[in-house]
Amino acid sequence: MRIALAQINTVVGDIDGNAGRVAAALADAGEAGADVTLVPELAMSGYPPEDLLLRPAFAAACREALVAVAAGVGRGMAVIGFPEWDGDCHNSAAVVADGRVQAVYHKRFLPNYGVFDEARYFRAGDGPMVLEALGARIGIAICEDIWYPSPVASDLAAARVDLICCISASPYHRGKGDRREQMLATRADDCAAALAFCNLVGGQDELVFDGRSALFDAAGELVARAPQFDERLLVADVDLGLSARRRLREPLGRRLPTTAAAAEAVRISASRAARNGAPPAAARGEIAPALRDEPEVWAALRTGLRDYVGKNRFPGVLIGLSGGIDSALTAALAADALGAERVTGVAMPSSLSSPESLAGAEALAESLAIRLMQLPIAPLVGAFDEVLAEAFAGREPDITEENIQARARGTLLMALSNKLGLMVLATGNKSEISVGYSTLYGDMVGGFAPLRDLSKTWVYRLARWRNASEGREVVPEATIARPPTAELRPGQLDTDSLPPYDVLDAILEGYVEQGLEPDDLVRRGHPEIIVAEVVRMVDRAEYKRRQGPVGIKITPRAFGRDRRMPITTRHV
């Protein structure tokens, strides 16, 4: 059977646009002679539609668009994700053939953890779906359904399906792709069924979907894999006869109880696709290389930034260039994601800025071929000091005066944004955001924070990798080698206020991402006094994080949807 996996990039709420993307993918699959074509979970609405699903008219419009798309399906069969309203809302997969919707499956496992809130929006399905179509028994699953060996997968195995079609919108985090692919191979092997997995690709707010759609045979062997972070129609043939042969030789599935629902197959009226020659050589059995480590993280960040800017129709971005590593990496990422012509750097030196800071910003702008504006902030800071002199009389200068400098820069960036229509990119990293080492309405201003879930350790890793991969100094080596400093007071270094970043990031990974208690961190060898101080800073900075811009999820536990802590609390 020839399978097509339409790994497409949808836009939440763009029902007509999504319908056009689905229809185009189905037409291309038909040209390639696909018998069964999959498009991602909730492709008609985009994923995740969030509270748009609380409007029945939204789901109804998705269904109307689905019916129109179905009318264009002649030969073969398609499985299309959409939200269905039938008195309640379901995360659904439409089985389309012969110009119409012939069956609808409702997702049974609704994830409600981490970034997922599906129990808020959907009613769970109550049984499996098995189809008799194109001379085969085909089971349907949606994303979370397939992550568990039972009951969805075990029901389909008991029903002796030859092929499992799983449509998905599985968000990315570092290393997840390998784990997911191992799980899918195991599921195909355990069920003795070929498994087609079609994942969404692209960015949606803080989420990135990496694609990596794949086809496995009934022994769990990888037949084809689509690339990560790129749209692709993956076409490959799979031997469904292997499923029957495995059931005969290894009859473990006979011991599984067969539910009445699994035993009753829905007959689908569909004709085999016309074979207009073999599929293109680049598509038949393609196994795209899997990205890992720095290349994977960079591609995820690039995709998330590109789609956030593009889908929200910003003409370009503004970045405050301090001469430091964070703003340098943000600018390098933006130039790669958007093109240098859509990136404007703004250097805003103060009386405390070192010559190295401005030189670093100028060298970076030249390296990236981006526009650079210079706006000195000394006159602004002086004006603030003058206006506040009477109110501050009798009080010694402190962090207040330092933050005025950061807020002067933030005001300039937002003024430029308003006037030019460009979006400001905040440049803070996860290490700083975790402990509140940032200024509200200062360096935190912006519409998007690409490095929000990237630790300082990873900032350095990516900068060095980017230079090595390009074979030149994309990020100036002088910037990488320079000790981090906010330059808000004479001689200031980040280590005046924070532990060294290698120490800080190890504690943050344990406390924030792994959920370890302070005592656990101390038992792992971290100094108790440093652990206590870092935990205190993380906990008290929640109010800052709530007011910062969203950013791209890279780790298993990012701030925001993944980690939801109260601002007002006396828990210690």
Quickly count the helices. Answer: 19
Gross morphology is elongated
Number of strands: 19
Question: Nearest-angstrom radius of gyration?
Answer: 27 Å
Q: What is the residue-averaged pLDDT? A: 95
Mind explaining what this structure looks like?
The chain is an alpha/beta fold. It contains 19 helices and 19 strands. The chain has helices at about 15-30, 55-70, 120, 150-160, 175-190, 240-250, 260-265, 295-310, 325-340, 355-370, 380-390, 400-420, 430-435, 455-470, 475-480, 500-515, 520-525, 530-540, 540-545, and strands at about 1-5, 35-40, 75-85, 90-95, 100-105, 130-135, 135-140, 165-170, 195-200, 200-205, 205-210, 215, 220-225, 230-235, 265, 315-320, 345, 370-375, 425. The strands form four sheets. Strands 13-12-9-8-7-6-15 form a seven-stranded mixed β-sheet. It has a six-stranded mixed β-sheet with strand order 5-4-3-2-1-14, covered by helices on one side. Strand 10 and strand 11 (about 205-210) form a beta hairpin. Helix 8 (about 295-310) packs across helix 9 and helix 11 crosses helix 12 (about 400-420). The protein is elongated, with a radius of gyration of 27 Å. The chain starts with a strand and ends in a 25-residue tail after the last helix.
